[in-house]
Each structure stands twice: as structure tokens, then as C-alpha cells.
Backbone:
């Protein structure tokens, strides 16, 4: 049965295989089966330097390799120091260093796969661990028999041929083949989450529902199929949905994004994080929900920091997820043309800026139609103002040196436009050509931000002018 599982999951293409072998029953069973089936294999062992007997265990694994006529590779790393330096648990630090070693050897040898000995019990434990930590469909699917791409390689698959084999069957194979696994005392130390779950929680669940491990394994298998189907859908959206996509930032049309089901939104955000920060693994529920909530209800500053040095910004109708170091092109923001000092906007009317941005001015037919919700400016690039306090001819120009602005909310007090732009987090390189709306020599609107206090709509307003700046 075990040999059949190996053959089913590893095509016999005569490419070299790097087998991660700890010396425990799973990995010994795996390497013995690979050798019996004639696969070209290299045994790779990583010494975590955590226990005094680790050196002896490495020598025993080397003896297994020699007895089967295959090459042996040894690596080692200070797991305890790595965990301390990177604020990781010992389990996570050991896993990361071990897989980095295995895939480094696979690249050096131009191997076709890295194989490890995870079994069906490991799958159940992984699923439960993810459930208790809080996880979506990907985590509840557990491990996959083959993963490509994976966190360590875009071209070399990580293969788990024994993922459908139970631990008791592996132990029976070891006895039958007279294999002598090493005993790692850390595997019974309940200070580790996985061991506590294995030795305490699973036996308790078995009392409630005999055969629960088989059912959990089947559930993970079913969910893995659902996850694959959904991931193919998201992969299709990823190719078609972003309006812009570079190594530093990804832009979405905010209205189109919000029209997607919530689950699809979350998956696209996670996909964006993996694109921008491939090494960042802490994409928590809270981070994803913060991004989704920003999409639906942007903050007043139109920008927020998420995690992993990634920020989210609303610019016009587009939402950008960007690395902190990203230099988003100027055409993402409204800008005056290079050779245009000012434009005239006649109300009602329209005037165009570069990169598809346009100002629109129109009078509101009925003041009563302006409910409180509209006046709260759902769209930061649209404002309503008292037409009686402005002229029909409005100027559109960039800021002037020392120019001041009395924004709504400051009760008529003014501040320098330059300071206002800094406070509002308008990007430095976008400030010099940011368009301002001028009436009678005064700044009455900084598009995307605030209206002037003097032209606000009040109970005495008789005629309302609507100004909109949008990007087609």
C-alpha cells in the first residue's frame, strides 16, 4: 500500500529527488520506499542543534543512506538563535530553516522535487491546529500532496507522498522492513502545540466520536478540492481585474471591487499581499478585514497602513494597495498639465485635466434633494457649495507660494495650503501640480479633501452648485 502511494504521487520521470529525512519512522519509510522503487534519490538531513543527541541521529540517517547506495547531504542551523532573532516559535524556526536547506540542495542539484514524510495523522493535526488558531478554507484544507509554487520555489514541487497513509501503517512497515527509527523526545513534549493536540485533544475527540480522525482527514480532502476550484476562479480574476499591477503596487476600480462577493474580495486582498510581499506570512483576519472595510468606507485621510509595510489608498475611483517604497505614478492623482497655468470652469460646464481627469460643475435643481447623506460627501471628489457665495466662472490652478486656505471644520480660520496638503497626506511629488478650485481669488476646494468654510451649504443657502472631479 505504501509503495502504491509513493508511485501515485511521484511520477517516474528519472529526475533526481531530494528526500528530507529526520530519521523518524515516516521519513525512514519514505526513503526506503523510494529506494525500493528505484527512484534516483538524495537523502538530506538538517540538524537543528537543539538536542545533544542530534549529532548521533544525523550519523544514523547517513548510515541509512549508505546502506541503500544513495548520497547523503547534511545541513545544520542554530534554530534557537533564529527563533529569537525573528520572534518565531522554535517549531516555526526549525521548519523554515529545514525547508530552506532542502530547497537550496534541490536547486544546486537541479532536482525535480523535494519530498517529505508527512502522513495522514499529520494532516488531521494540521487541520485542527489551523481551526483552533482561526483559519479560512486554505488552512482547513491542511497540507497538499504536491505544492507548486510553494514558499521556497516557483519550479520545484514540495511533495508529500504519504499524506494518505496512517501512522500505524507506517510503523507496521518499519517493523516489517526492520527499520530502526530514531526517537525524538521533543515529539512527546506537550509544551509544543502539535504534541499537546496529538496526545490530549485528539484522544478526547475520539471518545466523543470514534473514527473522528478519518472523518477529519476526509473533510480536509473535500475542502482541498473546494479550495482548488475557488483558487482557479481567483487566478482568473487576478489576470483580469486589477486596473494596474506592478511589483510595488496594485490598483482596483473601487466600485467594481465592491461589487464582488465578500469572500472573493478577501481572496484578492490576500493574493495582492502575496504579490507585494512574498515573504510576509502574517496576513491575519484583522488585516484583511481592515482592507475590506477601507474599500467600503475610506478613512478621512484616504490612506491607511495595513501590515508588512503595505498601505492602502483611495485615489479617485481607484484603490491602491502599495508597498511603502512604491512610487505611484502622478497620473493616478489629479494634476494640472505641465504647460497649463490655469483653466476656466464655467458653471454649468466641464473642463478636462490630463490622464482622463475632468471637472464638472452643475447647479442642483432642488435643495430639498440634498439630504444629509449627500452633504457628508460619500465621494471625496464631489462637493456641494453655496452658489451665492461664488462666481459662475471658477479658476482651476495649482497652489501659489504662501497661499492660505480656510477649510471646513476650522470655523473660518486659515492655514497655509502647503501645510494643509502635508496634514492631508497628499503625496509630496503630487502636491505642486494638485488642482485647486479658486473663486474671487480664494481657494474654495481642495479636490479629494475639503471644501472652504466660507462656501459651505447652510440653512440660508438658496442655490447649490455641485462640483465633481472624476477620472474616466
Residues:
Amino acid at each position: 500500500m505504501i509503495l502504491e502511494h509513493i508511485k501515485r504521487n511521484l511520477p517516474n520521470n528519472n529526475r533526481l529527488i531530494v528526500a528530507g529525512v529526520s530519521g523518524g519512522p515516516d521519513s525512514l519509510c519514505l526513503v526506503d520506499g523510494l529506494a525500493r522503487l528505484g527512484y534516483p534519490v538524495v537523502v538530506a538531513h538538517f540538524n537543528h542543534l537543539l538536542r545533544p543527541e542530534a549529532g548521533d541521529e544525523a550519523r544514523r540517517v547517513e548510515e541509512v543512506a549508505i546502506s541503500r547506495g544513495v548520497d547523503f547531504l547534511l545541513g545544520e542551523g542554530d534554530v534557537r538563535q533564529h527563533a529569537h532573532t525573528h520572534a518565531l516559535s522554535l517549531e516555526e524556526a526549525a521548519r523554515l530553516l529545514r525547508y530552506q536547506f532542502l530547497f537550496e540542495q534541490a536547486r544546486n542539484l537541479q532536482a525535480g522535487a523535494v519530498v517529505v514524510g508527512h502522513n495522514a495523522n499529520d494532516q488531521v493535526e494540521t487541520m485542527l491546529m489551523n481551526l483552533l488558531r482561526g483559519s479560512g478554507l486554505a488552512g482547513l484544507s491542511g497540507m497538499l500532496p504536491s505544492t507548486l509554487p510553494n514558499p521556497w520555489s516557483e519550479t520545484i514541487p514540495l511533495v508529500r507522498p504519504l499524506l494518505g497513509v496512517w501512522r500505524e501503517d507506517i510503523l507496521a512497515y518499519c517493523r516489517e522492513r526492520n527499520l530502526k527509527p530514531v526517537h525524538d523526545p521533543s515529539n512527546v513534549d506537550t509544551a509544543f502545540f502539535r504534541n499537546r493536540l496529538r496526545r490530549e485533544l485528539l484522544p478526547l475527540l475520539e471518545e466523543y466520536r470514534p473514527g473522528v480522525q478519518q472523518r477529519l482527514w476526509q473533510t480536509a480532502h473535500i475542502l482541498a478540492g473546494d479550495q482548488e476550484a475557488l483558487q482557479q476562479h481567483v487566478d482568473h480574476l487576478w489576470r483580469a481585474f486589477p486596473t494596474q499591477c506592478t511589483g510595488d503596487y496594485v490598483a482596483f476600480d473601487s466600485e467594481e471591487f465592491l461589487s464582488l462577493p465578500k469572500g472573493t474580495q478577501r481572496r484578492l486582498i490576500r493574493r495582492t499581499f502575496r504579490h507585494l510581499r512574498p515573504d510576509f506570512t502574517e496576513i491575519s483576519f484583522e488585516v484583511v478585514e481592515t482592507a475590506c472595510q477601507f474599500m467600503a468606507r475610506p478613512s478621512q485621510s484616504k490612506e491607511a497602513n495595513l501590515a508588512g509595510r503595505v498601505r492602502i489608498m483611495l485615489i479617485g475611483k481607484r484603490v491602491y494597495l502599495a508597498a511603502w517604497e512604491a512610487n505611484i505614478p502622478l497620473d493616478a492623482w489629479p494634476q494640472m498639465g505641465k504647460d497649463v497655468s490655469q483653466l476656466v470652469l464655467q458653471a454649468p460646464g466641464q473642463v478636462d485635466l490630463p490622464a482622463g481627469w475632468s471637472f464638472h460643475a452643475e447647479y442642483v435643481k432642488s435643495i430639498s434633494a440634498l439630504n444629509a447623506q449627500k452633504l457628508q460627501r460619500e465621494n471625496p471628489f464631489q462637493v456641494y457649495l453655496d452658489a451665492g457665495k461664488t462666481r459662475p466662472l471658477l479658476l482651476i490652478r495649482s497652489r501659489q507660494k504662501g497661499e492660505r486656505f480656510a477649510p471646513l471644520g476650522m470655523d473660518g480660520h486659515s492655514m497655509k495650503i502647503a501645510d494643509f496638503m502635508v496634514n492631508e497626506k497628499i503625496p509630496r511629488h503630487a502636491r505642486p501640480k494638485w488642482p485647486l478650485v479658486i473663486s474671487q481669488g480664494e481657494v474654495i476646494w481642495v479636490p479629494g479633501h475639503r471644501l472652504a468654510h466660507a462656501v459651505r451649504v447652510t440653512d440660508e443657502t438658496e442655490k447649490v452648485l455641485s462640483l465633481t472631479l472624476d477620472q474616466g
